[in-house]
Amino acid sequence: MKNVSELYTRPSRPIKILQFGEGVFLRAFADYAVDIANEENNFNGNIAVILPRSGKTDRFAKQNNIYTVCLRGQQDGQVYKENRVITSIDSVISARDEYDAFMALAHEDALEFVISNTTDAGIAYNEADQFSDCPPSTFPAKLTKFLYERYTYYQGDIQKGLVMVPTELNDDNGQLLKSCVLQYAALWNLDDAFTAWLASACRFVDTLVDRIVAGYPAGNIDAIQEELGYEDALLDQAEPFSLWVIGDPSLADKFTIGSDKFHVEFTDNIQAFKEQKVRILNGAHTSMVLGAYLSGLDYVGQCMADPVVRRSLDQTVFGEIVPTVDLPREKAEAFAKAVYERFENPFVNHALLAISLNSISKWKGRILPTFKDSVAATGKLPKWLTYSLAALLAFYRSTEEGDGCLIGARAAGNTYEIHDDAEKLAFIKENAAKATAEYVRAVMSRSDFWGEDLTAIAGFADAVTAHIDRMAEVGVKAHIEELGRDA
Ligand SMILES: NC(=O)c1ccc[n+]([C@@H]2O[C@H](COP(=O)([O-])OP(=O)(O)OC[C@H]3O[C@@H](n4cnc5c(N)ncnc54)[C@H](O)[C@@H]3O)[C@@H](O)[C@H]2O)c1
Ligand SMILES: O=P(O)(O)OC[C@@H](O)[C@@H](O)[C@H](O)[C@H](O)CO
């Protein structure tokens, strides 16, 4: 069978977008949108992708940066299938191994936008980063060096500023990225004229993204390749639903990437979209997947079909999350029901382990605000959201180290990888063998993990400890079952 790159060619276009991150999400979301815009909206711009961390570019080079996005799901009651070969990625460059090529992109005349997705942990500031590092460690530090190179090369030309359009799910992602860049500019004593150029020539826009991307369909790749008639090692599977909310209406004329196939909303009220999506959709994921995985399930679709896990999700979403969302109840419930249909998508297997990546920052960003609103409104700990932290701490509890991760073990018999920031995993490992109450208190009291000391919330640490003990005693599934019964 031929490779996709033997059947399709990549048109040459000016590089208009620099993209930090080569992950499955950006490739099935932003790059898919740009590809359509090139075809339908005369966007006329290609993308240069930067690997923000270690990693190899070979798998992209082997395919001339060409790959397929396969959308599968239900739309308007019908089965929807779309295969799009993406030919808009000009180059894939490792910031670490090809630093000079990365910096040379700052001289590209047509460059206008910087897109990123480096996970919720990626927009970070590390004061150990030096200007002389090539490259410095974090994504914002790399971006600062890139912007400085462009500012210097074009001698502060106001026309050569860039628009930063980050897609990480952090609150106010654009403003967060801007504050990190300004911190680096101050740390490195970069000239005031550069900071003035950042303010006048560049823009940092807040955005919110929504599309479930499962990535490479390892389980049924043979059938898909058979259907397509070619091989594709970069194939990326996702749902048809798409929404990119961009918090700057004035960008609509410049960033022309919306179409019937890809929905873009320019607004100056991003918060309403954000709270609903992050609390309900991402909150449902983060509260459900770790316990469901420990109870023996592997995919979101299986959770939806399992009566015990499904009941727990119903009670979590409709009983504890929806009441905290600042929207009329019917609207929030309608959104939650639509999310359920997306979770039930029979064509896309969304792996629980894929969602488990960096769960500590996810729990902090996607559950803790809901948890606190619920405590404030009801005067008691919400049962399921409390349990969700216990499930997280049980899932993470391991003293065994793997390659850049910890290794957990499931009652079902297999081991699994636990991925999070290295310092968080090191702390977990150090404390995992302690008695449950001690382990729980040690982790929950780390304000730098959660933004506050969670043991200061009355009764919370004891309740989490009790959940973990009960899971160990009767099994995770039986514990979810009994919790659901005494609703
Ligand atoms: N997959 C989805 O359904 C989906 C949907 C919406 C949003 N997202 C967002 O996309 C992010 C990435 O998800 P994905 O599915 O593409 O995963 P992925 O593992 O395929 O890609 C992760 C990307 O983030 C980079 N990265 C990870 N940690 C980093 C760090 N500390 N600093 C810099 N770069 C870092 C990796 O190099 C890689 O480019 C998620 O955190 C989420 O915010 C994903
Ligand atoms: O992508 P992550 O790892 O940040 O979070 C996992 C999921 O909750 C997330 O990918 C959702 O599927 C997505 O946010 C839907 O738009």
How would you explain this protein's 3D organization?
- The protein has helices spanning 4-7, 24-28, 30-40, 58-61, 99-104, 139-153, 173-187, 192-201, 221-228, 270-294, 300-305, 307-321, 329-343, 352-355, 359-378, 383-396, 422-431, 436-444, 447-450, 460-474, 476-485, and strands at 15-20, 46-51, 67-75, 78-86, 89-94, 113-116, 163-166, 203-204, 207-210, 213-215, 236-238, 243-246, 264-266, 406-409, 415-418.
- A six-stranded parallel β-sheet has the order 5-2-1-6-7-8.
- Helices cover 46% and strands 15% of the residues.
- The protein has two domains: 4-266, NAD(P)-binding Rossmann-like Domain (Rossmann fold, 3-Layer(aba) Sandwich); 270-485, N-(1-d-carboxylethyl)-l-norvaline Dehydrogenase, domain 2.
- The longest helix has 25 residues, at 270-294.
- It is globular, with a radius of gyration of 23 Å.
- It is of the alpha/beta class and 487 residues long.
- It binds nicotinamide-adenine-dinucleotide and D-Mannitol-1-phosphate.
- D-Mannitol-1-phosphate (44H) binds at residues 169, 210-212, 281-282, 285, 355, 357.
